[in-house]
Every structure is written in C-alpha cells, then in structure tokens.
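User: Good morning. I'm curious how iron/sulfur cluster would be positioned relative to this chain. Could you predict the structure with it bound?
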Amino acid sequence: MTLAPPRRFFVETWGCQMNELDSQRLSSQLMQQGVLPTRDPQEADLILLNSCSVREKAAQKAYSRLGEYRVMKRHRPELLLGFCGCVAQQEGDRALERLPDLDFVIGPARVGEVGQVLQRRLSGRRVVATGFPDAAERNYDLDLLSREGTYKGMVTIIEGCNKKCTFCIVPSTRGPEQNRPMEHILAEVRHLLDFGFREIELLGQTVNHWRDPSTAADFAVLLDRVARIDGLERLRFVTSYPRDFTQDMVDQLGRHANICPYLHLPVQSGSDRILRLMGRGYDIELYRDLIGRLRTSRPGIALSTDIIVGFPGETDEDFEATLELISEVRFASIFAFKYSSRPGTAAPRLKVPIVEMGVADRRLQRLFALQKGIQLEINQTLVGETFDILVTSWGKQPGSQTGRTPCHRLLHFDFGEQAAELGSMTRVVVEKAFPHSLVGSRVAA
Ligand code: SF4
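Assistant: Good morning! Here's the predicted structure, ligand included:
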C-alpha cells in the first residue's frame, strides 16, 4: 500500500519535563514539514506515543496504549503510528516485531530525526531510530521549537546520565551525558526572552553536572551567566544531584534574586545503608550539610525531594530513618513512590530481601500522612504573606485564576474586577492554606 503524507498529527506524552520538551521538538519538526497538530487523535493521520519508562510496568502500559491506537488503524489503514520515548528506546526492533502495523520507533536521542524517519516510512520501510548519536550530530532545531504556553520556556542543557543508580533506567534509555555548549544555551534563553517568555527552566537528568564541552565551565558559571541576562524574571532548574551541588552553586542561589527560591533535590532514602544499595554515592550527612548551606545562602528556600519506599533490603529501621529525615528537613513537597523493578537495572539482582508489597504500601501511606501534616503547617505560616505570582491558568471557580509563587507553590486566587493576563505577573495575598495549595486574592501591585 502506498502511504500518503499525513496532514494532522497527535502526540500523547507521558513522563517528565524532558519528555514534554521532546514532544515539543517532535511537533516543531512535523510542523516544518507541513503536518499540523490536532488535539483529537480521531482527526490525526499520524499518532505518536511519547512513552516513559519510569512508570510501573512501563512496556506493558505502552503496548496496551498502542493497542488502542491500532484498533483505530484497523478502520483507517492510512493512519501512521510512531512509538517514541524511553520505552521505545528499550524496545527498538522488538516493538516492530510485536506490532506488525507499527510504522516507526524513535528513541529520545533521535527525536531530532523524526522528519527523516517519516520520509523513510513514506517511501516504504518501517523504521527503527534508536541509540545515541554524538552531541555534534544531534539536531536540536530550537529556534523553531513548538513550545506550549508562552511563559515558561524549558531549555535542555544536558541529556543522558553517567551515574549508575541501581533502580534507574535513564542511563540505558537516554544514554551517557551529552552537554550542550554554553553559548548555545545562552542564545536559546535570549531567544525565548525575546519571544516574551518570563520564566526559564534549565533541564537535565543531572542538571548540575553540566560542563561546557570546550571550556569546562561548570553549572555555577552557567547559572550566573543565565541569571544575568536582561529581562529574565524567573530561573529554575531540575533535577539536581546532591553530590554534584558545589558551594559555588549554593552561592549563586543567594546572589541572584531571579533564581527561584525553590530546589528539587532527590534524596531517595534517609538511610545510608539503602543509599549505598541504591548506588547514590552520598550519605545523609552530606545531604543534611547541603540543606543547611542552601538555607543559609537563601533563607526561606522551598525544598522538594523524591523518595523511593520499599527498596530491596529496606528494613523498618531504614524506613524510620527516612521519616526522621522528612521530619527534620520539612520539605515543601515530596514525590514518593513504591519501588518497582525496571528491566535492565541492577537493583533486582541485589542479594537482599525483597520488601513485600503490603509492607511498602503501608510505609508509603505513613510517609504521605507525615508529609501532609508538615506541608499544611508550612503553608499555614504563609497566610497573610503577599507573593508576586506568575499566572498560569484559569481557576475552577468563576472569577478565579491560578499561578505559581516564586517558591513554586500553587496559588488559586480571586482576580477581582478584571482577570490577569495568562503568563503575566500579579500580586496576591494568601488567605487560606491547604496541604497542596494556597488560596488568596489579588491585591494592587
Ligand atoms: S542520577 Fe541516578 S536516578 Fe538520576 S538519572 Fe542518573 S542514574 Fe537515574
């Protein structure tokens, strides 16, 4: 059957900000080829599933979703189906074998090639584009990126990861670290600000391990250079690796008011024994010391973290150590998950007892209950405070909008007589606090 070039595409995105950005890159390249986006998969003649392998049973879920799209394809044989993202990288040729009507597979490091992949498919062959080309061969197409929204611009500075955390699939799905040159990053930030973006988020799996490939300048230097760019109101970065966070980086947070007073710093466990089994390369003393220095440099900084509960070998004592750390640090928010094994990682081969599902469930519930109380207490101390917030969306209640404080808290507010423009800054006083959000009213600037 001769395939017709698609006219409309639909992208479904799972997972982290890296995947969101990859979907924007996929979209921009398709649009350059004259294929237009649609929000309705029924209208699309090209569907891309940008998958995430951090999800539990990731491959199974991805195949099941692709199965739903294949049902659509039975009624519309001209529909093209592309499998992208981290699960696609892991599955590669196997995905084409398993799904005879899948048209192509693209790994995260090959996103810049979607245009060529589509052309190759239209000329007859099913295509697998996975693996890790050198940074120099990667196509970023950033000037033409199809970005969602107009206020927060995400900028990848480092892709892949060189670490070997025993639970993590990233090194095998996104490959070894590839650093983008400083001048490219600065040019992209300036370009986004010229375009009207107000907030820039620097992205990388280990964002603070970035090094300029030619000068070896580190992330502290980059933070300083980016923060000094005229017109940048808010600068964030994610995800930081505790061991790589130097004092120079800590100092930059105190030096630049436009670096947001919010930091995501995954600790994963409060037990040194479990951290060793995870291969994290730091202990709790290092983490604690870093938190202290961050709070000295930037008083009031909001901290969030990731925790894995029920990692192989985790005893009651190890879990209690995690709860102790949470009580001590008082994080503004926590992303906590039950451990589940990922294919190709080292943790399932550790010679330690597995934690039963029921035990892990109960631990996770205890952790959530503890954290919910802490978050409520912290948020209650913010009642009466006024924040300059970035307006991000309309609220659920008539007359309300939603935004983010500089410390990244969600704030729903009554906008008064006139709504604020989405993407603008407005001043809001906090009137009520809940564990996961704040509620307030707009006040005169
Ligand atoms: S630092 Fe560890 S958890 Fe983070 S991406 Fe690398 S291997 Fe995964």
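The first strand starts at residue 8 and ends at 13. The CA atoms of residues 105 and 128 lie 5 Å apart.
Let me know if you'd like a different ligand tried.
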